[in-house]
Amino acid sequence: MIWARNLALSFLVVTAVAGLFAGSLTSGYAHQFRDLPSASPSRQHPLGTDDLGRDRWARILYGTRVSLFLAPAAALLSSLFAGLIGGIAGFAGGWTARVVIAIVDLFLSLPWLLLLITVRALMPLNVSPVTSVLITFVLLGCLGWAAAARVVYADTRSLSQSDFALLARASGAGGFRLLWRHVLPNLRPILFAQFWISVPVFILTEANLGILGLGVAEPLPSWGSLLRELESYSSLTAEPWRLLPLVLLIAVVSCFQIVLHKEELPV
Amino acid sequence: MVIWKHAARIVATILLGGLIGATLLRLAPGFGADEEQLDPRLSHASILARSQNQTNDNVTVFYFHHLRRIAGGDLGMSRAFERPVSELLRERFPETMKSVCLGLLLGWAAALAMTVSVVMVRSWALDLCTSIFSGVLLCIPAALLALLFVLTRAPARLVLALIIFPKVFRYARGLLARSASMPHVLMARAKGLGQIRILLWHVLPPAAPQLLALAGVSVSIALTAAIPVEALCDLPGIGQLAWKAALGRDLYLLVNLTMIVTTVTLLANTAADILGQPFKVSHA
């Protein structure tokens, strides 16, 4: 199903580009049209305005920028942590590996969202929007490394015990050189895969946090905070254009799934 | 012996988790101060609140006191609810267990029924439909699903089943499909054995240890999902308690809740591991 993968990739690229150029395409996410609160879609406002008179289309594009660009940043951070922690444990072996894997197991036994909510609550909640974005995504990156670290650990272990590593050792390669020249390049595909697997997970987690009011603070929009507006929604059929963030979220995460798990699709 | 090993692992994990929790609690910005008192615009009050709440205890002493209180059955007072934590947990834990058990039961029943249909009927149309359905459900965050249930006035307890279903279905389908394509199953089909007999005797047993492990993991998924579901559907369980504690920065309550949920998760995983041992041995 190459066409499905290409279609999903194209959709992701178009969405990302639209988010990137949100500033040129719209009037701004916080600009209030005070005489037009809760307006229906029009030529000026394709998706109407919210209760405060802010253009919904602009907020969706800016929200896309926040969610779609910061989730990969958090995924990069978590992949780096996973590579560092799992790599060191796998390469060192012995007691270091046992202690690190015990910590990884501890992280894995803590329910993900509860851990995130707990650590988020330890930080001040009354912060500026930019700080809230940073706190949310840095926390995602700092707490989401455990599962990936286990995969990296297993792979580093098998790589450092492989024939080519033995040959490199026999040729006089020391610990650091062996790690840098022989193990790390072979870990790149694993880290790359873990990175891409983490992105949709982080997008969904940010949405969960946003809906619960623990994500990105107003007035900065993210998909989570935009979906939170559905709380004041009286009926699903009343204003269907308000469901666009939901449709966009499902479409983007589905596209990530298609791109990542293309082999699982029924032929 | 195996049970003792598991018990020791659970105790060690809980103690280590407690230490990490206590460390985070003690080092949290403005520990013991109200959120308003941390506002930088109220710098004088903020400084005053911080200095009033500063204690000389280091993390180890703080954790030791914390453990001693827990051993005595005192989980502390909730600042957000102004009630003892143990009382709140006694009230709310059964409610969450009811939701989680119902969600797990329905989610697993639906996922297994659909998996068995897909694997035994072997129709590409059914496979495609179930894949799309479970795929879409996987793309909806738990909180949003709960919100949609509130909007459509659907029974809130069903949300957990819809969250469990796609995750179980995806894994179970892969496991059973692999199991159904093994040579001994082909031989059983060739010999003309009935579908039910093939399923119960030849397809399910090799996949049983992994399915049991998945059952353990699904308890954790259900408990995690219970937070947004209970918060948004107004179900008075520990998920709602965790959410309110987070919004009120009730750190003692949050850390205690994390420890309790972790214990339940570890127990579920251990039970799944122990129950899966006989299948592993017989399959080997």
Report on this model:
The complex is a heterodimer of chains A (267) and B (284). With 267 residues, chain A is mainly α. Chain A has a single domain, classed as MetI-like (MetI-like fold, Orthogonal Bundle), CATH 1.10.3720. In chain A, 69% of the residues lie in helices and 0% in strands. Chain A has helices spanning 2-20, 22-25, 56-92, 94-109, 112-122, 129-143, 146-160, 163-170, 175-211, 223-228, 244-260. In chain A, helix 3 runs parallel beside helix 6 and helix 9 runs antiparallel to helix 11 (244-260). The longest helix of chain A has 37 residues, at 56-92. The mean pLDDT of chain B is 81. The two termini of chain B are 21 Å apart. In chain B, a hairpin with a 4-residue loop joins strand 1 and strand 2. Chain B is mostly helical and 284 residues long. The relative contact order of chain B is 0.13. The radius of gyration of chain B is 24 Å and the shape is globular. Chain B has helices at 2-27, 43-53, 59-71, 85-121, 124-138, 142-151, 158-180, 183-190, 195-233, 238-247, 251-283; strands spanning 77-78, 83-84. The interface between A and B is large, with 46 and 58 residues.
Question: In a nutshell, what does this entry contain?
Answer:
The complex is a heterodimer of chains A (267) and B (284). Chain A has eleven helices and no strands.
Task: Give keywords.
heterodimer, A: about 270 residues, mainly alpha, MetI-like fold, disordered C terminus, B: about 280 residues, two-stranded antiparallel ribbon, 2 strands
